[in-house]
Amino acid sequence: MAGRVEGKVVLLTGGAMGLGKASAKALLAEGATVIITDIDEAAGRAAATELGCEYLPQDVTDWARWQNVIAEVETTHGRLDVLVNNAAITVFGSIADISPEDFKRCYTVDVDSIFMGCKAAIPLMARSGGGSIVNFSSAAGNKVSPDLAAYNSAKAAVVTLTKSIALYCAREQNGIRVNCVQPGTILTPNVESVIAGTPDPDATRAAFSVAQPIGRMGEVDDIAHLVVYLASDESKFATGAPFIVDGGLSIA
């Protein structure tokens, strides 16, 4: 039986670890051809070797590199069906604490990169007959903290940007759907390192777990399965939508 994304060519940023790597693994298992990119070349190549997929080095904040990556995908595969904009950073700080430079850096990585990725990929995707763009936002775009001024606002901006691009693609009738994913607290290597670095890791883990009404942190597969759905034709009527997978965090 064919996989759910059999024959689709997928470009996924930030694929060296965490949710990006898990999503790439799930897409590969369902028959996709996956190209992961990452700014960390050693980690990116190691992940690609482990997963059995392609790797391209990429700084997602570099517009020229975006154009080159899309051109490389077209040269190698002749098409692009799915773009997953996963690469992001978290920048901590209240309005009083955060520097203008750090605030801008958060937006450059978390918002500008998605704008550039969509802008670069849409022409090739349209020539390929359409497809799906999946942008990573966060439940932090809904549930705010006084100490995440940049990250909260950047992730909220991703939702609005996704809606605007989705309406553009609908107006153009180019067959491209654009949605975003808003994960809650997921037990990724980054989260594990944050927990380990606190004075009482067990207490921190418990606090992170009970913050979700469902009573636990999410697992990477909770998000990877959603990415497969949005990449597949099963979601053919979904566009411009934020898909919240956060254990109820946003509504608590």
From TrEMBL:
Keyword Oxidoreductase attributed: yes
InterPro entries: KR_dom, NAD(P)-bd_dom_sf, Sc_DH/Rdtase_CS, SDR_DHRS6-like, SDR_fam
Matches recorded under SUPFAM superfamilies: NAD(P)-binding Rossmann-fold domains
Keyword list, A-Z: Oxidoreductase
Molecular function via GO: oxidoreductase activity
Domain of life: Bacteria
Keyword Zinc on entry: no
Residue ranges annotated for the Ketoreductase domain, each copy included: 8-189
Pfam families: adh_short_C2
PANTHER family in UniProt: DIHYDROANTICAPSIN 7-DEHYDROGENASE
Family from the record: Belongs to the short-chain dehydrogenases/reductases (SDR) family.
UniProt name for this protein: 3(Or 17)beta-hydroxysteroid dehydrogenase
Organism: Erythrobacter sanguineus
